[in-house]
Design brief:
Number of strands: 3
CATH topology: Alpha-Beta Plaits
Order of helices and strands: EHEEH
Number of helices: 2
Largest sheet: 3 strands, antiparallel
Strand order of the largest sheet: 1-3-2
Distance between the termini: 45 Å
Helix content: 40-55%
Number of domains: 1
CATH class: Alpha Beta
Shape: elongated
CATH architecture: 2-Layer Sandwich
Structural class: alpha+beta
Radius of gyration: 14 Å
Length: 65
């Protein structure tokens, strides 16, 4: 497995992604660390990036500062 260390908010998203099929997480260690299956790491990263894009506000590039 692969140890992932991240902010608790990111870890909660990872746990949420895993909750559908339990395909990713091997062991939930604490608030900031989780062990995931090495062969599923790329898929987990893709799903996490998609989830973060959904939740982030679009940047206003109108030039007003």
């Amino acid at each position: 497995g692969v140890l992932i260390e991240c902010d608790p908010s990111i870890k909660s998203i990872i746990v949420n992604i895993d909750s559908a099929n339990h395909d990713f997480i091997i062991e939930d260690l604490d608030e900031q660390r989780v062990v995931v299956k090495e062969n599923m790491l790329a898929e987990l990263k893709r799903k996490l990036e998609d989830r973060l894009k959904e939740t982030q506000q679009p940047v206003d590039e109108s030039g007003s500062e």
